[in-house]
Design a protein that fits this description.
TIM Barrel, Alpha-Beta Plaits, 2 domains
């Protein structure tokens, strides 16, 4: 075993047969923890830098095992299902391991690079036939720099095509090192205005856009991905400006517009959190078409996904 293979990280999912995270059929590895708090985030379980217990009450069969095994005595019966005392919960996963009905699920588990790659390589035949590979996503994968760099080095050693999905909100040295090891960077851009970006995500955009500018003059191909959120970044003039930025960066091959969806709303409740954007509707087909035309007008290949 190599030294890199033994490095440990915190992941919350490994999704097989992913077809929207880079070319071909892919396996996407989701790392836990993110510096951003996007109000529309559809994976709120990815944000915290630690394990989290999720409860799906509709799956509960009322066996009471979770109440029995909780070391904190933090689960009690209630009129509409068991109640978790979030103030007592340590997210140790003891209750989730006893819940075969999956009413309780622990988001976040420690894994070594070797363990992750063993799972990824099970589908190598699909990658070879489709031009796919491994995508490393999050959360923000660069928030676990030692692990993500070790995973990329090992992935390159065994010959996997590798895509890195990042918000770009990371030290330049970390991003540069990771991009050098990757075959493709999926670079998320929420909006160009720094103050509006801070209001919606909790962070300004200067470092993100500065990193994009530097990376865009490098050798690793980039696909800029934009989550289109109604009322936030769905103005054609703003997307046209992004198109002009993309057009002048040689490494940028395309801009992909990702339609907002509300599939993450229920996840907030499962974590005991309040959804920041309840009831927000996806953008219309007409709106997406106008935004695509705005980006493409700058001479950049624009793709609409979803």
């Amino acid at each position: 075993m190599t030294q890199d293979a033994a490095v440990k990280g915190l992941i919350f999912d490994i999704k097989k047969f992913a077809v929207h995270d880079g070319p071909g059929i892919r396996t996407t590895v989701f790392l836990k923890g993110c510096p951003l708090r996007c109000s529309w985030c559809h994976n709120p379980e990815s944000q915290a830098f630690g394990s989290q217990l999720a409860q799906f009450a509709r799956n509960c069969i009322g066996c009471g095992k979770c109440i029995e095994v909780c070391p904190q005595q933090g689960i009690t019966p209630g009129p509409e299902g068991n109640v978790i005392n979030r103030g007592l919960c340590l997210s140790c996963g003891t209750c989730a391991r006893t819940c075969y009905a999956e009413a309780l699920v622990l988001h976040g588990r420690e894994a070594t690079v070797a363990e992750v790659l063993a799972e990824v390589e099970k589908d190598r035949l699909f990658y070879e036939n489709s031009g796919g590979g491994m995508t490393i996503s999050g959360g923000e994968p660069l928030a676990q720099p030692e692990f993500v760099l070790a995973l990329l080095r090992e992935g390159r050693r065994v010959g996997l095509h590798q895509a890195l999905d990042t918000s770009g909100d990371a030290p330049w040295e970390t991003l540069e090192a990771a991009a050098t090891l990757a075959d493709l960077v999926l670079f998320d851009v929420k909006c160009l205005d720094s103050e509006r970006h801070r209001e919606a995500t909790g962070r300004p955009s200067e470092r993100i856009l500065g990193n994009l500018e530097r990376l865009g003059r490098g050798q690793t191909p980039i696909c800029i991905r934009v989550p289109v959120v109604p009322g936030f970044n769905d103005r054609p003039e703003e997307l046209a400006e992004l198109g002009r930025l993309a057009e002048r960066l040689p490494a940028v091959e395309s801009v992909e517009l990702l339609r907002y969806h509300g599939l993450g709303e229920g996840k907030y409740a499962s974590l005991g959190l309040e959804c920041p954007t309840p009831g927000l509707k996806p953008p219309s087909d007409e709106s997406m078409a106008a935004l695509k035309a705005a980006v493409a007008g700058a001479g950049v290949l624009c793709i609409v996904d979803g």
